[in-house]
Each structure stands twice: as C-alpha cells, then as structure tokens.
Design a protein that fits this description.
two-stranded parallel sheet, two-stranded antiparallel ribbon, 161 residues, 7% strand, globular
Amino acid sequence: MLLSGVVAGLAFGIAFGRDWRRLERLQIKWIPVLVLALVARAIAPVAPFPFALDLLGIALTTVFAAANRRLPGAPLVALGSLLNLIVIVMNGAMPVDVELLGAAGGRLREDAIHEPLTDGSVLPILADIIIVPFVRAAYSIGDVFIAIGGFLLTFVTLTRP
C-alpha cells in the first residue's frame, strides 16, 4: 500500500506540473530501517519463518515512519502500520472477510499472515474488510492510512512552494 500511495502521489504531483526532483528536498531518516522492512516483507513468502518476517517488516515500517513523523504523511503511515500490527498480533494473522472478497471475485491469499475473518476474530474493524472490486482485493483501515500517507508524502512534497 505504501508504494502504491507514493506512486499515486508522484503521478498526481507531476500531473499538476511539478518537477519530481523536488523529492530531493526530503530529509528522510533511518533509510536502512525501511530497506530492512522491505526486504523482510519481500523474502517472507519463501523463508522458513514467513510470519515472523512479515511482522518484523510491519514493525520496522512503523518505526521508520514514526522516526520521520515530520514528513508529510509519515504519521499516517506509522498509524496504519501500527493498526495492522495490532490486529495481526491479537489474532495471530490478519483476518480477511472472505465472503465479501469472494463476491468481488477475489480470494484469500495463501500466506502466513492472512486468515479468514470469523466470529472469534479480535478487532474485526481493523481487519481486511474494505473490498476493492476492480483489483479483487481486501484492505484494512491501516492499509488505507498507509496509502494516504504515502500519497501525501510525495504529493505534498511536489506541490509545496
């Protein structure tokens, strides 16, 4: 979600006639933490301990965004990542509303971090219950915050005088 938000913010900023080189102004802290988070999430599906790597990636994204809280959108990325981390830890996985997802033509990802939403799921409001039919996917409110934060990071940076 972060990457899609960043790319959308960049596209809209350029569409508004702004120069992408304005991103050079960003003073981003703790870039190695973000790189480690991305690597952990990328290798999780093929690692012998995928759930731990996914959790590590989400936790590191939260820390990275909090460390950069003065950047536009970073507090939303931190909040969204934290909300996702909370619901995953409380349930042992991210619950997904498979009925709504199936009605939109999607299916549950077969990975270590997702599971079907049930009556026993904790904090279901934070689960993947926001269905986006045209991509046949389910997202959480945390994912929405992350995407908006990523969008604001690039868009505000490009459009600020």
